[in-house]
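Handoff note, outgoing to incoming analyst
You'll be picking up this chain. Sequence as last confirmed:
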Amino acid sequence: MARGQQKIHSQQKNAKKQAGQKKKQGHDQKAAAKAALIYTCTVCRTQMPDPKTFKQHFESKHPKTPLPPELADVQA
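Most recent structure output, in case you need it:
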């Protein structure tokens, strides 16, 4: 009977370990970071997370190119 109890205990321990590994594996930082980059520069295809950063990038990297219409009213 001791072996039966040991087996049950071992199965519970393994199930808990597997659940912990799934939980740890569930969050992918690369995918989350990529999803946050929603603005893409039309000139160099660089991706940025918000319009303020996008406007600063555009003004510093592409000063001779006219500003895109979506950045006209953004405060930098």
